[in-house]
Design brief:
By secondary structure, the chain is an all-beta fold. The chain has one domain (about 5-100): Immunoglobulin-like. Helices cover about 0% and strands about 50% of the residues. The chain is built from no helices and 7 strands. The protein has strands at about 5-10, 15-20, 45-50, 55-60, 70-75, 85-90, 95-100. Strands 4-3-6-7 form a 4-stranded antiparallel sheet, with no helix packed on it. It has a 3-stranded antiparallel sheet with strand order 1-2-5, with no helix packed on it. The mean pLDDT is about 95.
Length: about 100
Amino acid sequence: MSTIKIRSKRLKDFTLVRTLIAHPMETGKNKNEETGELIPAHFIQTLIFKHNNEVMSECFMGFGISKNPFFSFRLKAAKAGDVVSISWLDNLGNSDIKEHIIR
């Protein structure tokens, strides 16, 4: 099951694409309440947004992003049947990708 949820809405002048990613986004500075030990850093480093297999945005992030991050994008040239995809890679080597067809 994917960690990425994608929704799109076609509006008059553009298509709004929204995404929610299930990810802990740990900074490496928080402590475990039970043991008092630091929780290891675990955060998304790269987020790639594609429209019809063309990279529209590539974001390089750090640990300052909140848990389960939400992103939105506006596409002016999108039409029904176009494909958007979102992928991420984190600092531990985990990754995910999800495609969505605009209706």
